[in-house]
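Protocol step 4 of 6.
Sequence for FRG domain-containing protein (Mangrovibacillus cuniculi) entered exactly as in the expression construct, tag removed. Do not edit the line below.
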Amino acid sequence: MLKTLGNIFNIEELKHINLTEDEEELSRIIDKYITEITSLSKMDDSQIKETLNELTTLVKDTPEFDFYLNNLRYIKQSYFIDKKEEESRIIDLDTIKQLRLDELIDLEDFSGNTNIEITNEKIEEMVNIKREEEEKWKDYNIISTISNIIGVQESNIEYISNLSDYISFVANLEPAVNYVSRGQKNCTYELLPSLHRKHKKDYEIHADKYEAAFKQKIVFYDREIKGISNEELRAEGQHFGLPTEYLDFTEAHLISLLFAIEDYEYAEQHSIVYFIDALSYNLETVDLKEKLINFSDSTVVESVRKFSSRSYFIKLGNSNERIHFQKGCFLKVSTQDKDDFKEKISNHGKAVIINKASKKKILKELFNLGVTFENIYPDKDNAVKSINFHYKEMQGEND
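Step 5 output, structure tokens:
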């Protein structure tokens, strides 16, 4: 394979010509190296990156290396687009079987009329729509697709299928100490706090109602709740599922990975871990050179009150057991700057996409390192959950 690929990794033009801006040069290279590009098309992005590192003198993760790598990815993508256009008129039986009747007829116009006409043109249109959607989620297009969804630049997104690639990504964060992370099981879920998901407006009114009701009821179970601050109350409510303006993050990136893949049987979509440079985020947003603003200190809370319309990263000490074990922190998302918040995530964020087919394998690798459900959820339920995973997936149960 490497012998076949050798030429495509040593093209002088790819070091200085941006193929996305030079279609003529792109066509020339595809025509000249079609055999190598056919082999290239069978590789995922991480394999291309490692092969480029292996076969060239380019230094990994430098601007020169990334420039060449982006050209290779664009060649691969263009190859598939050309191939897709050649096959676009061919409609196979399996694709037709995926079509639903309500995709082929307008149900609003259908009122018991038995003369339903489904034309070949309509079938072809729906087949192409499905193909385009499927194409977006092919391995070679995933980074581009996710970039369009979450707004993070493609160069700041990695698509991985093993733990070592994840650890390598974390090791190359610069500066790593400034980053916090958050894992989500579905890479298409919008990065929003639960309060914003549940309501579209009047966030402050809803938040006050939730928190007042929580404080009133929880005191029956925990008398000490009366003495905690509003910020600690909100964190405690977040822990139990109360809708708040907080987004959970952590300083422990293996824990974020575990959160992303703990539902390892969920196979509808790839998982994601967001990485945010919290220090630069806070510096831009509230002009404080603090990675996490200490909301356990009432004087600090008062000093940032003037920034109530902005979002920033905070910590609340070990206000509950889970925050302690998970090295937890929060992004306090202002109800007034949702659009600005998304732009900040784009400017200061990176992401790792975890291949949905590799989740169980990576989870087993985490267990081998001693990172289990029990470590981050220190209770009896998750002790049993860890035991069950160990015997079912690590050792394999006998029927």
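Step 6, annotate. Residues 185 and 271 are 4 Å apart (CA to CA).
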